[in-house]
Sequence to fold (164 residues):
Amino acid sequence: MRKLILLSLGFLVAAGCASVPVYKQIQKDNSTYNSRIFTATSEQLHKAVNQMLLSRKFQIDNEDETTGSMMASRYFSQSRSNTVVVIQSRMFSQGNGHQKLFFNGIQTTQRNYITDHTRFLLWLIPLPGGGGKEVTKTKEEEASIADPTFYNDLFDAVEKNLGS
Fold:
């Protein structure tokens, strides 16, 4: 019995040591696909990012031209589920007319559940005065967009808007 307890404690300790802290993933991630340097003024780049997001049917939620930050979202609905794509952009001056632009994208999936509270007599005849429907939104998934082609497409569209 004592050996069984020690063995189970050993497994618990080993399982606890096996999990990697999440912040270690941040330190390992050295990808640079979500940033690009542009030769333009901050006003020109801000205008090009704004045009790119609006032309792709994003809604500008928050915009601050002085800090060079912007947040935009786009909603996709499919029957009872909603997918929201949120893009955050931020510009930093690199000097000599160069600006570094960062994009971060987050995709969230939500599902709507409908509960019907209607009362029935013998499961056939609806009774008056009771019931109604209640809609509940549940977040199913939220993840950062880590697709380099997604970001390259956004940067290419900004570059195109800068040229025009």
